[in-house]
Amino acid sequence: MKKLIAILIAFASFSCTSNAQKKTFSETALSETLLSTDGSQVAFKDIIKKQKGKTTVIEVWASWCGDCVKAMPKVKELQANHPKVAFTFISMDKTSDKWLAGIEKHELKGDHYMANDQMKGIFGKAIDLDWIPRYIILDKSGKIVLYRAIETDFDLINETLNKLK
């Protein structure tokens, strides 16, 4: 019986930590470069620095992702309700033409970048990407306040943004 209790406690501890909200990005994530709409490569740390002084929502998405497209009206609602919040979109598309067409089609307002090696690449692994759309919220100092939210978490995202006003 003691062994069973110990196993259950260990399992519960592991389950809780596997979904834990991280407070910082790894050095791998920060040093990884992403493609900008102007064709240049930009380090993720520089993308974050650019937003310093603003609360920022980072959305990781792709034009081929049905859940991402379905969530777009909610993202636009967030933008309307939080006009001082900066939005940075990071695409996991395979080609830049699909990515750029998706930005235009969905009329996404904000800064745009594309991962060079999609979801299972270096950047995706470095931010623990297991689902898109994925939302990360940074406070005005650039500190992570919400590391992992998905399209079913818009109430949590909105609540977090309201706390940061």
Automatic annotation (TrEMBL):
Main location: other
Intracellular or extracellular location(s): Cell envelope
Keyword Signal: yes
Signal peptide location: 1-20
InterPro entries assigned: Redoxin (IPR013740), Thioredoxin-like_sf (IPR036249), Thioredoxin_domain (IPR013766), Thioredoxin_ResA/DsbE_sf (IPR050553)
Keyword rRNA-binding: no
Keywords on record: Cytochrome c-type biogenesis, Disulfide bond, Redox-active center, Signal
Domain Thioredoxin residues, every copy: 23-165
Protein name: TlpA family protein disulfide reductase
Organism the protein comes from: Flavobacterium keumense
Taxonomic lineage from the root: Bacteria, Pseudomonadati, Bacteroidota, Flavobacteriia, Flavobacteriales
